[in-house]
Amino acid sequence: LKRGGLVEVISSAPSLEDIGGYDPLKEWLNRRAGAFGTAARHYGLPAPKGLLIVGIPGTGKSLTAKAVSSTFGLPLLRLDMGRVFGGIIGQSEANLRSVIQTAEAIAPCVLWIDEIEKGFVGSQSGGTSDGGTSSRVFGSFLSWMQEKEKPVFVVATANDVSKLPPEFLRKGRFDELFFVDLPSPEERARIWEIVICRHRRNPATYDIPRLVRVCDQFTGAEIEAAFVDAMFEAYAEGDEPKDKHVVEAVTRTIPLARLMDSQIT
Ligand code: ATP
């Protein structure tokens, strides 16, 4: 695997514990944690094929893709879909084949395709805008997904389901499709705890219910950014980040969801 290649090996391995929310997905995965082990093989369980996770930016899809590989105990390859396309005629198809070969050579492994919808520009309009390349690449990808024999578990993440061709969502390709929404108040509480621990502070020293109340419509990424902002403020004051710093940082932030709402109304 060369630097600057189509796929990269990701070594950071957060666990499912590092994610706030995603309960149905966590349950699904925990049930299949040993699916790539020998006991499951002997039992005759089929190797799971893959997951499609769709949701707005910053809700933890990337974090989840990484946690999938640590749950299965498999190496993680990340494919930058944008890099597959381009070059001379036929190059995109060749790129996809090379990615598949790499993943199959490393299998069992997890292949994470980030922002998969990016690759499929034009495919929903019949693939005319790029001479049909994205349709062809997309077709080969789907055939491989359906027929693959090597244990390559695919995690595809997407921000916008409307950009994905309907064939993609049909049963048989992915085992499950999970939609991720803005976190609920309970999920925000868990995310605050995780984020505070991640930044080496003790959640018990914060008024979590208050923090949850002030960050309505925040994504996990926005919660983390607000905590980091609070740390900088506190550091400049020669203090530890306290509730007031965090609440002020939250107040300074306009979450993307609220911004979008105000543009629609
Ligand atoms: P994008 O589509 O913009 O890549 P994403 O949905 O993949 O967004 P992440 O990159 O996983 O989101 O989230 C960014 C950061 O925000 C994570 O590294 C994590 O620190 C924090 N975060 C987001 N959602 C959660 C969550 N549900 N639980 C814990 N941390 C979260």
Automatic annotation (TrEMBL):
Record keywords: ATP-binding, Nucleotide-binding
Presence of the UniProt keyword Iron in the record: no
GO molecular function, one term: ATP binding
The UniProt record lists the keyword Glycosyltransferase: no
Top-level taxon in the UniProt lineage: Bacteria
Residue stretches making up the AAA+ ATPase domain: 47-184
Signal sequence bounds: none
Recorded family membership: Belongs to the AAA ATPase family. Highly divergent.
Protein name: Uncharacterized AAA domain-containing protein ycf46
Biological source species: Luteolibacter yonseiensis
Organism placement in taxonomy: Bacteria, Pseudomonadati, Verrucomicrobiota, Verrucomicrobiia, Verrucomicrobiales
From-to range in the entire protein, with total length: 209 to 473 of 511
